[in-house]
Design brief:
Elements: H1 7-19, H2 22-29, H3 33-47, E1 52-55, E2 58-61, H4 63-92, E3 95-101, H5 103-120, E4 124-130, H6 133-142, E5 147-151, E6 159-167, E7 169-173, H7 175-185, H8 195-201, E8 203-207, H9 212-223, E9 230-234, H10 237-245, E10 250-254, H11 259-264, E11 268-269, E12 279-286, H12 293-310
Parallel strand pairs: 3-4, 3-5, 8-9, 8-10
Antiparallel strand pairs: 1-2, 5-12, 6-12, 7-10, 7-11
Helix pairs in contact: 1-2, 1-3, 1-4
Length: 312
């Protein structure tokens, strides 16, 4: 295609082809008939084909003209649909948000936000990809998702990070499991163990090594010189909590997700001499990519809800 052929030239051609009349096309386009004739002649010269033949009632497409009209008709219909979609985004709040999140953070953090957000913006389409935080970071960098709900990464530079607050990792177990452990070891109370002794004799349940939380816990255990006697690796946090509830061992879980179990006594916290360092969670997107309007609405909503929840 000759680069001199502008969109307006094809719009003129498409309108003339649709009306079959230069005079009618001039009225629809608000330009003069000579200007239309000149634009058509220039387009024909550039394409080196005859697009129209004249007759008593106006103009008629040649075979080449009908072929071009099929393409311009589809092209302008797509443009019309695009404009309509943009109008809907403005008037109805229609948009698309692609979110990456781990299964655990999706259930305990993301879903409560989404429930209220969807009721406010029912026309926004939301896609959720549940995978590890490491995979979420990779998808963010490749542009495959718009935002990720993650723990604050050590390499923060490429990301814009919106904090939702902190979480705390703790070790917990069911009372019957701890009672049996004491009984087997000749101790009266779990406090009679040193932490290294307890972990050496207990069944310790952690997330698998592909999880960024596991890396955080491994770093802590290494620093504290604590070694698990028996290690059971679990794929997600919900299973860790369930296994701890049935007395399968001591599990490392997030305090904020088992508050009801701690309050009821279904699970007991293992007192650590040195608590596990807290972590920060929040939404992240690539710093160089401006979020679309739907994502901006979602992030603004989450920040507003966070402020409301923190008010005394």
């Amino acid at each position: 295609m000759n680069q001199e052929h502008s969109l307006s030239a094809y719009q003129i051609f498409n309108t003339v082809a649709g009306t079959g009349n230069i005079s009618q096309a001039a009225k629809e386009l608000y330009i003069s008939q000579p200007a239309i004739s000149k634009a058509i002649a220039k387009l024909e010269a550039g394409l080196n084909v005859r697009l129209f033949t004249r007759n008593s009632r106006g103009v008629k497409l040649t075979e080449e003209g009908r072929l071009l009209y099929e393409y311009t008709g589809r092209a302008f219909e797509e443009l019309r649909r695009g404009e309509e979609s943009l109008r809907q985004i403005t008037t109805l709040g229609i948009g698309h948000i692609r979110i990456g999140v781990s299964t655990t953070l999706c259930k305990y953090i993301l879903l409560p936000y989404l429930k209220e957000f969807i009721s406010l913006y029912p026309h926004i389409r939301i896609s959720i990809q549940c995978q590890s935080t490491l995979h979420t970071l990779s998808l963010l960098e490749s542009g495959s998702i718009d935002i990720g709900l993650i723990g604050r990464p050590a390499r923060i530079k490429p990301f814009e990070f919106y904090s939702l607050g902190g979480i705390e990792d703790i070790f917990v177990a069911a009372k019957p499991y701890l009672d049996n452990l004491c009984l087997r070891s000749g101790r009266r109370f779990v406090q009679d163990f040193s932490i290294p002794e307890l972990f050496a004799q207990a069944n310790i349940m952690l997330l698998d090594e592909q999880n960024i939380t596991r890396q955080h816990i491994d770093d802590y255990l290494t620093q504290q010189r604590i070694t698990a006697g028996q290690l059971l690796e679990i794929s997600n946090m919900d299973l860790l909590i369930d296994f701890a509830r049935i007395g399968l061992g001591i599990a490392c879980v997030i305090r904020e997700f088992i508050k009801a179990d701690l309050d009821s006594g279904a699970l007991l916290e293992i007192p650590l001499k040195h608590p596990i360092p807290g972590r920060e969670i929040g939404f992240a997107h690539i710093r160089t990519a401006a979020p679309n309007e739907a994502v901006q609405k979602f992030l603004a909503f989450c920040r507003r809800e966070l402020i409301i929840s923190e008010d005394p």
